Every structure is written in structure tokens, then in C-alpha cells.
Amino acid sequence: DIVMTQSPLSLPVTPGEPASISCRSSHSLLHNNGYNFLDWYLQKPGQSPQLLVYLGSNRASGVPDRFSGSGSGTDFTLKISRVEAEDVGIYYCMQTLHPPFTFGPGTQVDIK
Amino acid sequence: QVHLVESGGRVVQPGGSLRLSCAASGFTFGDFGMHWVRRAPGKGLEWVAFIRYDGTNKQYGDSVKGRFTLSRDNSKSTLYLQMNSLRAEDSAVYYCAKGPFTDAQYYMDVWGRGTTVTVSS
């Protein structure tokens, strides 16, 4: 199975400041179609998870442009250009290249 | 508007069975692959299973393989998860989630609100 790791696991942030989360996979997620099968999700407190970024770098519908995804192969990054208070929650990366699909352990983002 | 509504969660004894349902609306259900994902108390998200739009391909997580069975009724726009031989570690909120309009990608762009399964004697 592909193992996903994230760092940091806890990230205190200051509103208005940038933030970054790293995700690594034990196997390359680059499909032969050129897409990286790596997605980012956010689960806010008391809510269902929501898709933020799909296929490595594509922002999902309705997601603010302060969120961006980058990376390829085994190393990926989710960046928030200017954190807002509503961005608190747990961020997960997930690979969907090879079943069983696997999530990272999650990064808890809180306001300082 | 796209909606997914899970149901069927309850308290069940270890070794018991349960069937979860996910009712879809606002889109052509039979055109999309569907997933189940769970989150146990104090734990992170865990992918459970995926079923292709036509039901011909199913994939399962290691921890549920052989115990859980995924099915769908496209005429009723409903997804099912049959859960057998339940264990305490299956206790979680179970979410159904919709895949994209393509057979070759698996991200989850719409999620339901979840249904809670508790396995306890």
C-alpha cells in the first residue's frame, strides 16, 4: 500500500500570514497520463470534509484562490497565501493512484 | 444542487451486521463513481471503498476487505454499504462521497454529512 506522510502534524497560524503543509508519498503519484493523483481535503470542526485541490494543483470549485497545490512524484505542498480564521481545521492529503487509496495522517491548523 | 444523505448508522454489537445507505440527488447518479470514507473518534480520515459508476469495479480498504460489500442501485440513485462481522474499530462516522465525471480519476468533490456507526456490547 502507498503510505502518505504529512508535516507538520500541528500548525499554529497567524491570520494574514502564509502557511504551508507538506505531503509525501512512499510511491510516485505521477500517472502516465501526466497527472499526479494527489488531492487535498479540509475538514473544518463539526463539518464534513471538503475538496480543496485535486490532481495535485487544481483548485476545486468555490475554493478561494489563496489556496494552491503544487508538487509532483512523491513530494507535494499545500499553500495558503494569507490565512483566514475560517481556514482552521484538519488538512489531509490523499493518493488515488493505487487502491487501496490512502490519506495522510492530517495536519491540524489552528489560530495562534 | 448536489446532495448526498447517508442513513442507517446505529449502535450494533460486535460481530453484527449493518447496511448503510446514501441517497443522491441533484445529479445523474449513474454517471459517477462513489466512495465511502470514515472517521473514527480521535482518528483521521480512512478511505473505505469505491464503486465504479456502473458497479462493475469495486475497491476496498485493507481493514474492511472481505467484511464490507459495496453496491449501488442507479435506478434509485442510492449507494449501499453492507457491513458484516463488525468490530469495535469499525465505530466511526461514515461519509459517502461523489467522484468526478470521468472513469479514470477518483477525487471526491461532494460529501454527505455522515452517519454514525457504533459497535459496542
List the helices and strands and how they pair.
The complex is a heterodimer of chains A (112) and B (121).
Chain A: E1 4-7, E2 10-13, E3 19-25, E4 38-43, E5 49-54, E6 58-59, E7 67-72, E8 75-80, E9 89-95, E10 102-103, E11 107-111
Parallel strand pairs in A: 2-11
Antiparallel strand pairs in A: 1-3, 3-8, 4-5, 4-9, 5-6, 7-8, 9-10, 9-11
Chain B: E1 3-7, E2 11-12, E3 18-25, E4 34-39, E5 45-51, E6 58-60, E7 68-73, E8 78-83, E9 92-98, E10 110-111, E11 115-119
Parallel strand pairs in B: 2-11
Antiparallel strand pairs in B: 1-3, 3-8, 4-5, 4-9, 5-6, 7-8, 9-10, 9-11
Explain what you see:
The complex is a heterodimer of chains A (112) and B (121). Chain A has strands at 4-7, 10-13, 19-25, 38-43, 49-54, 58-59, 67-72, 75-80, 89-95, 102-103, 107-111. In chain A, strand 4 and strand 5 form a beta hairpin. Helix content of chain A is 0%, strand content 49%. Chain A contains no helices and eleven strands. Chain B has 121 residues and is mainly β. Chain B is built from no helices and eleven strands. In chain B, the strands form two sheets. In chain B, strands 2, 4, 5, 6, 9, 10 and 11 form a seven-stranded mixed β-sheet that branches. The radius of gyration of chain B is 13 Å and the shape is globular. Chain A binds chain B through residues 1, 33, 35, 37, 39, 41, 43, 48-51, 54-55, 60-61, 90, 92, 94, 96, 99-106, and chain B through 37, 39, 44-47, 50, 59-62, 95, 97, 100, 104-109, 111-114.
In short:
Chain A is mainly beta.
Considering the chains and any ligands shown, give keywords for the structure.
heterodimer, A: 112 residues, mainly beta, seven-stranded mixed β-sheet, four-stranded antiparallel β-sheet, 0% helix, 49% strand, B: 121 residues, 11 strands
Instruction: Identify the most extensive interface between protein chains.
Output: A-B, 27 and 24 residues
Strand content bin of chain A: over 45%
Taking the alpha carbons of the first and last residues of chain B, their distance comes to 40 Å
Number of helical regions of chain B: 0
Radius of gyration of chain B: 13 Å
Question: Level of helix content of chain B?
Answer: under 10%
Q: Could you say which overall geometry of chain B the principal axes of the C-alpha atoms support?
A: globular
Low-confidence stretches of chain A: none
The termini of chain A sit apart by: 36 Å
Task: Give Rg of chain A in angstroms.
Answer: 13 Å
Order of helices and strands of chain A: EEEEEEEEEEE
Structural class of chain A: mainly beta
How many beta-strand runs of chain B?
A: 11
Largest sheet of chain A: 7 strands, mixed
Classify the beta-strand content of chain B into a percent band. over 45%
What would the average pLDDT of chain B be, to the nearest integer?
A: 97
Give the averaged pLDDT of chain A, no decimals. 97
Helix-and-strand structural type of chain B: mainly beta
- Largest sheet: number of strands, sense, barrel closure of chain B: 7 strands, mixed
Which residue ranges of chain B are poorly predicted, with pLDDT under 50 across at least 5 consecutive positions? none
Percentage of residues in helical conformation of chain A = under 10%
